[in-house]
Amino acid sequence: MGSIEGHEGSWAYVKGGMGTISEALAKSAREKGVKIILNSDIEKVLMENNKATGIRLVDGKEISSKIVLSNATPEVTFKHLVDPKDLPENFNKAIDNIDYSCGAMKINLVVDKLPDFTCLPNKDQQKAGPQHMGTIHFENSLEEIDTAFKQAYDGLAANPPCVEMTLPSAHDESITKPGYHICQLFIQYAPYEAHGIAKYNSKDGMELDLPNKSNMWSNDNAKEAYKNVVYDRIEEFAPGFKASIVHEDVLTPWDLERIFGLTKGNIFHGSLNLN
Which DSSP string do the residues of 234-264 spell out, in sequence order? Predict the structure, then answer.
């Protein structure tokens, strides 16, 4: 899975962090005369005779254009920025039927020492070894992954969760201060409509104190509880991991939607299903 410059099964890190890709794209665009306006929320895509003619910003300013491109989700673009009345009925129906289920959650961390895995202990607490260079998965079996999916299908945050870890600072020391490392966690499965955390190795769900099975991500205590479920999972394989955390950025599916505009927290703008 993955390919970089002809090397199959490989991933790559961007020197300086992912923001350098945005900066490179912006630099290239500006060299070709593109004007980039930042921090300007769009209120509406302007339409005339069923054709986009420009945009209106939240501050009321209008910008005309022969072509309007959107990299927002179809839900945001065609149900919030464009008036559905300006679109064909069959197209609106297709937009309504897009499946945004995903179940992904992100946690970005700063740690003051590298994870020390029991299967391959660190020779140096600050210098990265080969065990820190790739994509690290915390699962004991395929059955655990299957169980996690089934728990999410039943509306529960998976326990134990499937956790994927990357340590980009192991490759690029420029993205953090000396003595610290960037640790990124990708967690599955954390459904958007979750109403509780599954019991460990059990099909029976652990109900949280939420009224009428309301969404757990709206409850700070539930968010905190599941964050610790994730940390405890890593702790099984790398004792001392929790104590190494000095900063955290926890992004539930609700946070991914609220902050980045990803409908239902789906990182692909729609489920990657066969249909």
Answer: HHHHSTTTGGGEEEEEEE-HHHHHHHH--GG
- CA-derived radius of gyration, the chain: 22
CA distance 78 to 8: 37
- Dihedral sign computed on CA atoms, order 265, 266, 268, 270: negative
- Residue 153: which residues within 8 A CB-CB, separation 6 or more? 191
Tens digit of each residue's pLDDT (9 = 90 or more) over 27-66: 999 999 999 999 999 999 999 988 999 999 999 999 999 9
The label of the residue with tokens 């920025």 reads 81
In angstroms, the CA 60 to CA 244 distance is 48
Strand partners, 165: 136, 185
**Within 13 A of 175's CA, how many CA atoms are on the CB side?**
21
Please name which of 179, 182, 24 lies closest in space to residue 112, comparing C-alpha atoms.
179
Structure tokens at 91: 């197209």
Q: Cβ(61)–Cβ(72) under 8 Å?
A: no
The residue extents of the domains of the chain are 37-96, 104-265
Measured distance CA(271)–CA(264) in Å, rounded: 11
Instruction: List pLDDT tens digits, range 90-136.
Output: 999 999 999 998 899 999 999 999 999 999 999 887 789 999 998 89
Q: Are 167 and 132 spatial neighbours (Cβ–Cβ below 8 Å)?
A: yes
Query: The tokens of 208 are what?
Result: 């949280």
Please give the structure tokens belonging to residue 192: 């958007």
Question: What count of other Cβ atoms lies within 10 Å of the Cβ of residue 258?
Answer: 13
Helix (H, G, I), strand (E, B) or coil at 47: strand
Task: Tell the burial category of 251 from Cβ atoms under 10 Å away from its Cβ (0-12, 13-18, 19+).
Answer: buried
Contacts of residue 30, Cβ cutoff 8 Å, sequence gap at least 6? 36
